[in-house]
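Good morning C.,

I know you're traveling, so I'll keep this short. The sequence:
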Amino acid sequence: MNPTIVNSYELLSCLKTVGYDNASRDPWWWPASGSFEVVVGAILTQNANWERVERSLENLRNEALLDPEKLAQYPAASLEALIRPSGFHTAKGRNLRDLSRKMLERFGSFAAFRREVDREWLLARRGIGPETADAILNYACYREAFVVDSYTARLLNALGYEFDGYDALQEWMVAGLEGESRRLFPLLTRAQCYARAHGMVVEYCKANRRGRKIDVSALFEEG
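The tokens, ready to paste straight into the viewer:
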């Protein structure tokens, strides 16, 4: 383990220092943050790279389907054809239609969903696990939910850390920012800090992956 990285604040400070806070993106990092598009993208990106997800989102956008009312009623086979680039189109299509219907039944609208939904409700929905639930809460609903993923695990593994599952990894990332989020991003809320922090991890890992491994040498380059 590199002794200079002892908590998530130090890791994220390194990522910011070496230039992985991408200011050219959405202020919450995920494209179209705060919208129903995030909910759709969070499901489509399961086991798929983002470039393929963007193709599916563009197909849905062209049909004006990034709306829960329209998506809930759209024919299953037609929806599956539109999201085919993301893979697992049958399961993802079923899950998107089911989530849209349950969202409208329980909350009445996406605006109310954003205000009222909680993690337990999301996790009870078919096809939504902890990572997807936290992505929806943080990037669509602007809640204090820190998203961790395979990139986070691989980056920390390269630094000598091992975690027993999603919750332990998330707890480590959150604990290091306790009382420090304003030092990392002085003008941001904690929820937005969490969003940008996860974004930095993903941006760094995409740029420094070597097969399944992440090269951490760039974290320690002197500016």
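Safe travels,
E.
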